[in-house]
Structures are given as structure tokens and as C-alpha cells.
Specification:
The chain has about 350 residues and is an alpha/beta fold. It has 7 helices and 21 strands. The N and C termini lie far apart (about 50 Å). Pfam families: Pyr_redox_2.
Length: about 350
């Protein structure tokens, strides 16, 4: 470490739902907090699907992804953490006193006592159609994400994929599109069970086990027909389309973190029951982690973040309480409540 850097109690790497909520909770535990996100804006993977409806966050009625992120960002800023955007952390160096210096690929350095990794699946790389020449249609009517649902109103839409987002898009587009066809390589879908049931009982045409074989264009610039092939019989079907949406998931790339010595698998880092990794003072949360009772919901990432932060707090101070007091009994919120015009009598009701 060539220069004196400001020392933080905890540095959270990753600005998706897990990282954002962890930053908020870190303030509840009175820790000096820094949040670093490699992208130019906060939000993580949800930014890829801003219009996706999210139903499974406790106490929150159905909400668009972009709005949920806006609320999480506002909440994360409650205790004024330092937020750094556009820096990918590549270097990890343990100091003689046990603290850690993190170095960004651009050269900036960050000094911290503990680290919480909330990096999801790493760099987000969409899996694209492996059809020669498909990329030329990306400027017209081949989509890998849905930014605005209204753009598909009255259109014949084909969706390729069978995961959570593909099912959600099918359900969201079914009421406004002229028709929706979903093509999936397997008979079973990976979305939430209720959403899959809703799709199956709707007017969505389901083609399984099929895959997209060819994209056809009469004008050379946009797709107007798609050939799909049955994976068992080889039978082919020609479909008329106005738009094609592909959701084949994302490739996982953890980048330089892979060289830190973590116990990494193909998709996750292995953690203990307190979200601790095999590196002292390094904890993890969210989609990046795997453990026996892992809950694969956004709500589950919040719990991961709480447990990781509590572990970081006790790593720093073994005598500290195991968790923060609830907000209604937490002194840190009394002043904030007064700023909102809430009296102490109202707080105690």
C-alpha cells in the first residue's frame, strides 16, 4: 500500500439487491461502509429486465424491476455509505494487520477490514442464439431482453427459453400481443410454479421439446418467419412472427475473483452457515453463494446479506450483539423518524 487510504469497516462488492440491502443493514449496525459496483449504475441483474414484474418480495405488492431497484437504492443510502460505480475489483492483498487492500482494474485502491461479496453470477453475458447471421436482426426484431412491453402490443411474438424470465415475459405479453408462442428444449419449465401454471392455462402456445432452427427474412433486415424443430422426432414447423425474444440465460464469469483462493464452483462460492468463505474476513451473499438451505428468491438474498453483515460485525468485535435491534427499537431510527414527523408516542403504538 503506497499511500494512506481511508479505512472502512466493511466493503461490499456488488450493487444488486443483495449488496444494496446489505449496505442498508450495515448502517443499522453502525459500520463504516463502502459499496463498489462494476457497472455505471446500481441494480445488478435486474437491470437486464427493468419491466419484469416481481411478486415474491415480502410486504411488496407486484412491482416492476426498475422500481424495486430504485427503492432499494434509496434504502441503501439511508446511512450514507460511500458508493463507488464503474470499478471492477481485481486485486486482493492481505496486509500485516489483517486488513485488506482491494485494487480495481483501473488502479484505484480501497482499504477495508472486511469484505462482503455480492457479485451474483459475475459479469453478465447473455447467451445468444447460435444461428449464423442472427446478429444482424438485433437492430430490428430480435431481442435478448424486454425493455418496454408496449413495443410488442398487437404483435405475433415468439419466445425461446424456459427459465423464470421467459415464463414471466410470456405471461406479461399474453394480454397485449396478438399471439405468444414459447419454444423450449425441455418439457418442464424453470419458472416459479404458479407462473408456469398461469402460462399453461393461458392462450400462450407452448412448443416443447423444440428449439429454434432458423430465422427467415423476406427483406433481409427483419425476421418474419421462424423454423422450429422437435428435438425427438425432427419434425419442423414454420411460424409467422413479428418479434423474437431469446432468453437462454447468462454465462457466468467471476473474472479476477477466481484468482483470490476462494472455494469456487462453476456457479457459486461455498459458504458456511454464517455466510463466511474460506478466506478470513471475507463473507458473501446473494446469488453468488450456495449452502444447504439456500432460498433462491430475492427475499432470500436479503437474509444472506443480514447474516453476512452480522458475521462481519462479530469478526470485527466478537463481543458485539449477534444482530441489530429491529427498526422500531433501534436508536439509529429515532432521529430519522422525527425527520419524517413521527412522534415518540406514535413510535410506541
Amino acid at each position: 500500500m503506497n499511500k494512506q487510504l481511508e479505512l472502512y469497516d466493511v466493503t461490499i462488492i456488488g450493487g444488486g439487491p443483495a449488496g444494496l440491502y446489505t449496505a442498508f443493514y450495515s448502517g443499522m449496525r453502525d459500520l463504516k461502509t463502502k459499496l463498489i459496483e462494476s457497472q455505471p449504475e446500481l441494480g445488478g441483474r435486474i437491470l437486464t429486465y427493468p419491466e419484469k414484474m416481481i411478486w415474491d418480495v415480502g410486504g411488496v405488492t407486484p412491482i416492476r424491476g426498475e422500481k424495486l431497484i430504485a427503492q432499494l437504492v434509496e434504502q441503501a443510502k439511508t446511512f450514507e455509505p460511500t458508493i463507488v460505480l464503474g470499478q471492477q475489483i481485481s486485486g486482493f492483498e492481505r496486509q500485516e494487520d489483517g486488513s485488506i487492500v482491494l485494487t480495481a482494474s483501473s488502479g484505484e485502491q480501497h482499504h477495508t477490514k472486511t469484505v462482503i461479496l455480492a457479485i451474483g453470477y459475475g459479469a453478465r453475458k447473455l447467451v445468444k442464439l447460435e444461428i449464423e447471421g442472427a446478429d444482424r436482426f438485433e437492430v430490428t426484431n430480435l431481442y435478448y431482453t424486454v425493455q418496454e412491453l408496449e413495443g410488442f402490443r398487437g404483435k405475433h411474438v415468439l419466445i425461446s427459453g424456459g427459465g423464470d424470465s421467459a415464463v414471466d415475459w410470456a405471461n406479461e405479453l399474453e394480454p397485449i400481443a396478438a399471439s405468444v408462442t414459447i419454444v423450449h428444449r425441455r418439457s418442464q419449465f424453470g419458472g416459479h410454479e404458479r407462473n408456469v401454471s398461469n402460462m399453461r392455462s393461458s392462450s400462450v402456445k407452448i412448443c416443447t421439446p423444440y428449439s429454434v432452427e432458423a430465422l427467415l427474412s423476406s427483406n433481409g433486415s427483419s425476421i418474419d418467419q421462424v423454423t422450429i424443430a422437435h428435438l425427438e422426432t425432427g419434425e419442423r414447423e414454420l411460424l409467422e412472427v413479428d418479434a423474437v425474444i431469446v432468453n437462454h440465460g447468462m454465462k457466468c464469469d467471476f473474472g479476477p475473483v477466481e484468482g483470490w483462493g476462494l472455494d469456487l464452483g462453476a456457479w457459486h462460492v461455498t459458504v458456511g452457515e454464517h455466510m463466511e468463505t474460506n478466506l478470513p474476513g471475507v463473507f458473501a451473499a446473494g446469488d453468488f453463494v450456495t449452502y444447504g438451505s439456500k432460498v433462491e428468491l430475492i427475499a432470500g438474498t436479503f437474509t444472506d446479506g443480514i447474516m453476512a453483515l452480522n458475521s462481519a460485525k462479530q469478526y470485527l468485535d466478537p463481543e458485539a450483539p449477534m444482530m441489530a435491534y429491529v427498526s422500531s427499537h433501534n436508536e439509529k431510527f429515532k432521529e430519522k423518524n422525527r425527520a419524517l414527523g413521527v412522534t415518540e408516542d406514535e413510535e410506541s403504538e
